[in-house]
Each structure stands twice: as C-alpha cells, then as structure tokens.
Design a protein that fits this description.
GO molecular function: ATP binding; ATP-dependent protein folding chaperone
Protein name: Heat shock protein 70
CATH topology of the largest domain: Nucleotidyltransferase, domain 5
InterPro entries: ATPase_NBD, Heat_shock_70_CS, HSP70_peptide-bd_sf, Hsp_70_fam
CATH superfamily of the largest domain: ATPase, nucleotide binding domain
Shape: globular
Distance between the termini: 38 Å
Structural class: alpha+beta
Keywords: ATP-binding, Nucleotide-binding
Family: Belongs to the heat shock protein 70 family.
Radius of gyration: 24 Å
Low-confidence stretches: none
Helix content: 25-40%
CATH architecture of the largest domain: 2-Layer Sandwich
Strand content: 25-35%
Number of helices: 12
C-alpha cells in the first residue's frame, strides 16, 4: 500500500491534520464534517471514544477529559497543574507527583500522555481511511515553549498511539506556521513574527525567511495562556452575574464535589460557545439548560467580553515586546505578523495587534486553525528544516540551591557544552545534583533553583575517596535539533562513565 507524509497539530482544544497525495495537501475531515478534531476523550465501561463524539458528553457525564495538553509533562504540585484542576472534566489525582485523570466509572487512572495517545490514534485511523494509504513520515507540532519534560511526554503519547518513532519528528508550532506562510512568497529576506494564540498556550516566534531558508531568531511565550483561560474568565463572570441577576447560584454549595465539577464543565462549554459567537456577533445569550424552560439567561456583549479579557491579552503584548527585545529588533523591523490559533479570531486580539504593528501587517493571511498542521506537512514534502533556537537554558544545581547556566536560552541548536564539576566535601562517596531548565540568557549566570524546572535529580558514586576538589566530573549537556536533552557524566580520574542518556519524562 502506498504511503503519505503527514503533518499533525496536536492541540489543547482542537487538533488538525494534513496529508500530501497526488500533488495536493489535503486537510483531514472527520465524520462531523469539520476539519478540526476536538481534543476530548471519553472513558466508559463500553470503551473509549474521542473527538466530537466525546465532546458531546462533556458536562453531561463525569468521564470526559479535556485540556490534557495543559498537564502533559508537568508535575502535580506545579502551579500550572493546580490551577487547572477544576477545568479538566474529571478529577486529577497525584501519582508520584505526576497528574493522572481519574475515571470513577471504571476506577482507572490515565496520564495526559494516555489521553493524547487516544486523540492521535483516532487521527491516525482517519488519515488512513481518508487517504487509502498507510502513514509514512510524520511531523507532529508542539509549542515552542515546551520544556524537555513536555516534549518527552508528547513523544510517549505518539509512541502509544502506534506511530513508528523512527519516522516521527517534532516541530515547533510557530515554525510550522511560518513555513505555511512563507512558501510561495517572494524570496527577498524578511523578518516575520508568528503570534500563536491557541487553546492552551501562547507562543511568539520571530523568524528570518530568505530564499526558502527559515531561521528562528527568538522564541518566547507562556505555556499556560490560551483560549481556555478566557473561557474560565467568562465562567467566573457568568457565575457572579447569574447570582446578582436571579439570586441563585449556578453551582450550589450543597452539590457533591462530583456534581459541582460536572456542572462547571457544562457551563464552561457554554462559555466557550459564547466566546466563539462573539467573533462575529455583538452579543450572545448564555442559557444553562436547567433554566431554559424558565427563560432564564444572561447576555454577554462584545464590550463586556473585551473588558473581561483586556488584561489577559495585554500579557501577550508584553511577551511580544520581550521577544523583540531579545532579538534586538523593533516593531518596524517586522514585515508581517502571522496570526495563528483559534484565539486570534477574538476581535480584541486583532485590534490590539493592529494598534501595535499597523493593520496592514496584521491582517490574517493564513487559516489560523489549519496553518500549523499544513506547515508541518509542507516541511516534510519540501524537506524544510528551520534553524531553531533553544527556548530554555540548561544548567546544573549548586550546593546553595542555585543553578548555574551551561547552555543559555535562545542558543542555536543542535548544540553541546561541557563543564567540569568537582566534589565539595572531603572523601565524598556520592555526588547528588539536579539538571534544570530555566530562562538564563548567558553562560555561568546563576538563578534560584525555585525559578527553574528540574528535569532530573541524579546521584552517582563508585569514584575514589579524595579531598574535596580532587575528583572531577566532565559533564556534557546537549540539545539535538528537536530540543531533546542528552547528558553524559564521566569521572576524569578513573575514566568511568557515570551517566549517558537522553532525559525522558520517566527519568
């Protein structure tokens, strides 16, 4: 059976896929007729379903998971996971400081990678059915600001979904969007900004495009800022406004925790629908089903929505300016701002960007929902490999709860750097240290451990006892072209290799 190359945008709210066949890029459509696949999964005693079929049950059944991408590769005790506990549709439990979705109906727990794998399985099956071919090489996109843990946990999901990992590459979402925009443009050198505001993440990338070559100048963003945040803001407004208007709580205190969560999920879906309607309307009525017979509703106007989300969108503009400063560029240096992600359909987003850069630079020039997946597929077909940068620095912890930078952020990749560590006490038998990612911008910059993400805490022993400072460990850190982290540690005195491995999410 013939093969087709495939590009997949694995999204927080919706996913999208393209394949290339007989000279055409085809966007995969699904049984509901849409070209977007809702990133929802339902677990029940009768089996597992995903996509639109699962989303239909969200808010009606306590077994539908959403927002898995927001938790993938994160620790349970992180601020981000704690802030998302009420917005996943099911309880989130702690297993080894990793979040798992608990399904009471089957008394089973599923990791974010498990959930993402179910989404990818269905997309994979649909591509094969629609194309009549098997899947060949695959590019799957991820946020540019995903750290090593999130990238590795995503790889786990891809593997669980049954893809041949030897034929899978990861590509940063803004880079894929830039490829989609850049192909077919004139060949003169230009600098573009990709403003990628999706369902769960916000990325900004600045690229130089010249003669079909794509060079990333800087990545920045926020892994926990997206359309889901806006849905949650609308929900809090709805709860307050409803009580003020009708004197009743939409989520009564007397409900069980399970009932509260289910009610919240249903209301969240209504808020998402209202937000989407306000991309083309001036107002939207929010009518909780339980009150429809009474005719109860509250009206969300575009002006109210803009007031609610103004500060949230200002965060994206601040990140835009930070990215420009990192690259040593100004707004005037940008030839185009490419708007990517469903959240860029918000009218206030478009208004703020037009004010910041000028309307002529910010007019939507690609389909914001499809361009990432299409660009990923184009990268395969035309053999385009953007020259990437690190989003995070790499460093090692010191004895005073600080981290010394070895490879700074915004460094060209692939890259490799070595540092010599030594014992800090006499006759040490074991060395304990932590490999961290952070935001340091130059080598040997020292940052608080609390501001960094620990990728791996490791110990090694088996070296001679000597006075402090007389045993040396040559430690090499490297990023490959997909920002995968590899570490080797060798004792200089004995030649013994103490550690040599990629850092996986299970490390």
């Amino acid at each position: 059976m013939p093969e087709v190359p495939v590009g997949i945008d694995l999204g927080t709210t919706n996913s999208c896929a393209f394949y290339y066949k007989e000279g055409e890029f085809e966007c995969v459509d699904y049984p509901n007729g849409r070209k977007l696949f809702p990133s929802f999964v339902r677990y029940s005693k009768s089996g597992i379903i995903s996509g639109s079929s699962a989303k239909l049950y969200f808010g009606r059944a306590r077994n539908v998971v959403r927002n898995a991408k927001r938790l993938i590769g994160r620790y349970y005790n992180s601020t981000e996971v704690q802030g998302a506990l009420n917005y996943c549709g099911v309880p989130v439990v702690n297993k080894g400081n990793k979040p798992y979705f608990h399904i009471a109906e089957t008394d089973a727990d599923y990791s974010p990678s498990d959930v993402s794998a179910e989404i990818l399985k269905e997309i994979k099956k649909t591509i094969e059915n629609r194309s009549g071919c098997t899947i060949g090489d695959v590019v799957i996109t991820i946020p540019a600001n995903f750290d090593n843990n999130q990238r590795q946990a995503t790889r786990d999901a891809i593997s669980k979904a049954g893809f041949n990992m030897n034929r899978v590459k990861l590509l940063n979402e803004p880079s894929a969007a830039a490829i989609c925009y850049g192909l077919g443009q004139d060949t003169t050198s230009k600098k573009i900004m990709v403003y990628d505001f999706g369902g769960g993440t916000f990325d900004v990338s600045i690229l130089d495009i010249s003669n079909g070559n794509y060079k990333v100048l800087v990545h920045d963003g926020d892994n926990f800022l997206g359309g889901s945040n806006i849905d949650e803001i609308i929900l809090e407004w709805l709860l307050k406004t409803w009580e003020e208007t009708y004197g009743e709580e939409l989520i009564p205190e007397g409900l069980t925790p399970e009932a509260k969560s289910q009610t919240r999920s249903g209301l969240l879906s209504l808020c998402e629908q209202a937000k989407e309607q306000l991309s083309s309307m001036d107002e939207s009525d929010i009518e909780p089903p339980i009150f429809m017979e009474e005719g109860y509703a509250v009206t969300l106007t575009i002006d109210t929505l803009n007031d609610l989300i103004d500060k949230e969108l200002d965060k994206t503009i601040a990140i835009v300016e930070r990215a420009l400063n990192k690259a040593g560029l100004s707004r005037d240096d940008m030839s185009r701002v490419v708007l990517v992600g469903g959240s860029t359909r918000l009218l206030l987003v478009q208004k703020k960007l037009a004010k910041h850069f000028g309307k002529e630079k910010t007019t939507q020039s690609v389909n914001p929902d499809e361009c990432v997946a299409k660009g990923a597929c184009m990268a395969l077909v035309y053999d385009i490999l953007p020259k990437e940068k690190t989003a995070f620095s790499l460093g090692t912890s010191l004895i005073n709860n600080e981290v010394e930078c070895i490879i700074p952020s915004n460094h060209d990749i692939p890259c490799s750097e070595s540092v010599v560590l030594t014992t800090a006490v006499d006759n040490a038998e074991t060395i304990y240290t932590q490999l961290c990612q952070g935001r340091s911008t130059y080598v040997e910059e020292v940052a608080p451990l609390s501001s960094c993400n620990v990728l791996k805490a490791y110990r090694y022993s088996g070296f001679p006892k000597r006075p402090k400072g007389e045993i040396h460990f040559n430690t090499t850190f490297s990023y490959d072209g997909e920002s995968k982290v590899h570490v080797t540690v060798k004792c200089e005195e004995t030649g013994q290799e103490l550690f040599n491995s990629d850092l996986t999410w299970d490390s």
